[in-house]
Amino acid sequence: MNKKELNIIVSGWEYGAGKSGTAKGPDALLHALEKHVNLPNSPTHVDQTVEAEDVEHIYFPHLKRARHLLRHQSRLAETIENSPPQSRTLLLTGDHSNAIGGIAGFCRKRNPQNVGIIWIDAHLDLHSPYTTPSGNIHGMSVNTAIEIDNLDCKVNDLDVDCISLWEDIKNLKKSDAVDPQNIVFMGIRSYENPEIHLIKTAGIKVIFAEDIHKNGIDWALNDILEHFKSRAQEWYVSFDVDSMDPSVSIGTGTPVAGGLSKSQAQTTLQFFWKQPQTKLLEVTEINPELDTKKPMAEEVCDLIRPLLQ
Predict the structure, then answer these.
(1) CA 114 vs CA 82, 140, 196, 238, 267: distances in Å
(2) N or C: which end of the chain has fewer CB within 10 A?
């Protein structure tokens, strides 16, 4: 890739998660990268524009901060939609609810039936407001892409305003839903029963972390490549740093044991970055406020900088 064609977008939105601090993650990663790499273009920032006392007021317990999220993710989607058509995008985000705007903007520029989503994460993030145990929207990001409310597993009742907001969030794509069979999860090891039900009923491909450890990282990557051979050819690759084991990924909000090693994560990112189908790579959930050893941004910089050199 010609480095001049790299488009860097930064979104520090952090209010889709239960812990604060991820708003600082993208800039921390940028600062770490700039020590080692001459970035070809100035990043485009989509800044948070909410007042703390307002955003902390929860109007909808099963869809927390939805109004603020909708406004921010609308701006993020528009930014991605308006990015140069021939560019490849590196998207650096706060919490993983930014993928709602990321995927929405990505789908606006292309046929959603040709969109593939590769979700590298400890979690499935497939809840809807009807099934969520927490109300935190970063656990619903992939659901907004496929638009399946999973009412078979409903545990929460929503009022009409909450339902309307949820529909508006799903409709940010301004297009049809992404085909569930065009989504692959990788590194999964934490989930709830409603999400597994949706995986089975919708036919979504999941490569669990334990299968990667058993069969090897090359097996997993080749399996994904084979899966997409005759389907979606424009990929949104989302890398949540909690996909890595907590021995590496300390500075993140929801670490889960048994994750990818740093070497496996590096192999994974290099593999996808080399694929011409990868049009956007998202890196998310770095939380500098939770760092206790080597800063999380430095760990991730080790993974990202070879892609940019």
Answers:
(1) 19, 22, 25, 17, 25
(2) C
The structure's pTM equals 0.97
Q: 293: which 2 tokens? A: 């050893």
Residue 10 domain boundaries: 3-308
Cβ-based neighbours of 308, under 8 Å, separated by 6 or more: 3, 6, 33, 37, 39, 90
Q: What CATH number is given to the structural domain containing 170?
A: 3.40.800.10
User: Dihedral through CA 74, CA 132, CA 239, CA 272, nearest 10?
Assistant: -90
Number of structural domains found in the chain: 1
Consecutive 10-residue averages of pLDDT for the chain (309 residues): 79 94 96 92 89 81 96 97 90 98 96 96 98 97 98 98 98 97 98 98 98 98 96 96 96 94 98 97 97 93 95
